[in-house]
Design a protein that fits this description.
about 210 residues; globular
Length: about 210
Amino acid sequence: MSDVSVVPTPDRNDENFWAAASVLVEPPWSEPAQGDAFTMDESVYEAVRALAEGISTRASAYRAAGKTLDPVLMAAPDVQLALLRALYEAKQSVERLADSAATVAGRGGANYAQLGAAWGGIKRQSARLKWPHAVVKKSTSESIPLHYAGGTAMVHHDADSDAWWYTATAADHQDTESEPVHRTYAEAIAGATEYLLAHSLPGRQSPA
């Protein structure tokens, strides 16, 4: 267990807030316990089951008849196929969220070895192949999308002012474009994230 007492915890209005946020804490995480994994399984299953019941032909037939699908019918092979299809969608969601997390971490100073370690311990080269745009030179002006809370944002660098700005389309289809006033990529990401969360749909908030 790392010594969390040495990690700075400034408030948002503290002048050192963004300086502290840009420093990579080591180690970045502690290994999840078995109970944490089981809890994650249960949460994922609840989300996936809801989607499976929504797309299942058998469940649709029960709804059309004004009936509730008996829980034991989740064991029916066709419903399990609907569950499998829903699990594939969950996998796609995980990949999209992982792309965003790797990009934000990489743009914030993490290297490919650290990204690989976070992604189950894959090698640095594999992490670079998986997220080729995550770790870039500090001078880059390339814009990389962030997917969060059901919306998408793009963070850009303005070379003239040497500042960062973002555009965002939230889950409620509201658009915004910030001024180039953010001093760092991390600060612009935070602004975009706040906007996406403020305009997310009920039940669609994503974890940080």
